[in-house]
Amino acid sequence: MHPTLFKAVRPGFLRVLPLLAVLVPVMACTGFAQTDDFNDGNSAGWTLVDPLSVLGAPFMHQQVVNNQLVLTADGSPNSAAYGPGRGGLLRQDVVHEKFCIAVDVLDWDPARENALGLFARVQPGVGLQQTAGYSFTYQTDDKDIDINKITGEQPATISEGGEAGGVVDPAGAVKITLEQGSAYRFVFFGDGAYLEGRVYELGNLVTPLAIVRSTQGTAYTRGTTGILIYDNSAANVQHGAKATFDNYSALDVVAPALSIVRSALYIGSPLGLEPPLIVPGVSLQWSPEPRCWDLEAAEDPAGPWVALAKEQYSPDGGSAFAATGGTRAGFFRLRPWHRP
To answer: Picking from 3-17, 21-35, 106-120, which range would have the lowest pLDDT averaged per residue?
Structure first.
């Protein structure tokens, strides 16, 4: 499986001409998802990561405001000895090997030099000088995205370049300027040694603004996932970090790309006598793995979304759905079909 075949988009959609859905058989699948839109007004199910709390007071704070998660890290009282203000939330109820995690980043404090993003494959035993795993973050001061390997809370950049705005960055972190107050979706996925982070505008979940990659994900093969913030300011001017998040999800599969191919469709002989009817149409196709997705359609991207069918597999292991003109549905997306 080549990782660049997959778009890590949740719940990305594609625009096509009005279509008539041709239903396909239901197939079984064993994917699993963790999700939290914080609409219940709390962060139940999460574990707070506050490494500086060993100093005798909480330095990491979380609250749900207007159904959105606000994380705040206070400035460190002694960054030389204990490091900067930092922390986050972990979902420790599921351990992932292959993973695709996403969160919406809605805002951050422009008066602070923030690093903010996602944790993956976090190892047991988090805390001061203990936390280990991988991170995908955006640095609001450096204006770049990168992937880090974390060992004993010490981050080491393992980014190997990527692209932003059609410009290829051959090595290291990838430069991208995100506007404070605009909404973005961060997606981080991994399969074996391969890790990839993406940033999308929330209004366009098809084309990423920036991508950063690494092939150095061998140190930690499985672990938990979550959200993090980090004070990136100089040691003598610690201001802490603050950011607002929403719509977190974590899958144990990597989201496939949904594409549209124009084709001639065999409809059959309505009376069983005349020649088969072949009409112009389209085929919605997605990559062979993973096989845990429902195809949904809607007249508008705001919904409501209606499930058309679960997956139908072609002889080569791929998935496809055929449709012809006739109904008003114009948007399609893949939604993970997971165990309750």
So the answer is: 3-17
